[in-house]
Amino acid sequence: MKITTHFGRLAAVALFAGAAGGCVSTTDIDAINGQLADIQKQLLQLQTQASSKDELASLQSSLGKQMEQVLQSEATLKVQVDALSAEIERLQSKLEDTNFRLSQLSQQIATTNQELKTFRSEYRLAAPEAPPVDPNAPPGTAPPVTPGTTPTDPQALYQSAYNDYLRGNYPLAQLAFEEYLANFPETDLADNATYWIGECLYRQGKYRPAIAQYDKLAKEFPKSDKLPSALLKRGYALLELGERPAGIVDLQRVLRDYPSSDEANVARDRLKALGVDSKR
């Protein structure tokens, strides 16, 4: 360093002055030595300060590297968090879709159970009693035909129409039910036949005529036990036509007018699937 060189020159001057002989006194030499000591002290301080600056620069460099690593880690973590969030959203969407499908399946099961229950009750009403079998008849002998059991017999005609419905032959079942009403409009199953015509139309996607048939049932048979089912399916038909508000009103009417019925449970599940509060 320049300070060290300067210190060396001062020392040489002092030695030269001593060698020059007797002009310089002891006091002068002590003064020079004192100055040299001060200079040396200042030199040590400067060296210490220089060392501190180097350490500071090294510390700053280290902090800079650490900060860079932190920023890199933060960027990596952000990418991982974004990926995790996207995965969570995907799973949540999949879960919502699964819940919706389960809700639809539950509605289908409830509707099927209701139709099965209706079939059992109607089968008991419409099925003709089996004729007695002669115990003395030889094996393989067919039982005698009951008089009056012909295609125009109300019970046989009704059961034939209903069997066609169960097999999915909706146009044929519709014609048979219409024939039943044309020939036997005053029977106990007339209201049921009216309802099943509406069901045949609904199954064929003829929602507007089906609604008209459900309305006909309510008008001509105001005390029919088929009214809850007709009102439920009327709401379904309106929903299929895109008339959501009117369909929701019908489903809510099922809950209000027939709260203890099986149809009320089906209507409640459908309203829930539509995101509508069934308690309103």
What does this structure look like?
- With 280 residues, the protein is mainly α.
- The model is unreliable at 123-151 (pLDDT under 50).
- The two termini are 93 Å apart.
- Helix 6 runs antiparallel to helix 7.
- It is rod-shaped, with a radius of gyration of 51 Å.
- The protein contains 9 helices and no strands.
- Helices cover 76% and strands 0% of the residues.
Question: Would you kindly provide a brief summary of this structure?
Answer:
The protein has 280 residues and is mainly alpha-helical.
Structural class: mainly alpha
Q: Beta-strand level of the residues, as a percent range?
A: under 5%
In this structure, how is the largest beta sheet organized? none
Sequence stretches where pLDDT stays below 50 over 5 or more residues? 123-151
The number of distinct helices, counting runs of at least 4 residues, comes to: 9
Quote the average pLDDT: 77
Instruction: Assign an overall shape.
Output: rod-shaped
| Topology, number of strands | 0
**SSE run:** HHHHHHHHH
Alpha-carbon Rg, integer = 51 Å
Helical percentage: over 70%
N- and C-termini, Cα separation: 93 Å
Keyphrases for this structure?
mainly alpha; about 75% helix; about 280 residues
Provide the fold topology.
Blueprint: H1 2-19, H2 26-126, H3 154-166, H4 170-183, H5 190-203, H6 207-220, H7 227-240, H8 244-257, H9 262-273
Helix pairs in contact: 1-2, 2-3, 2-9, 3-4, 4-5, 5-6, 5-7, 6-7, 7-8, 8-9
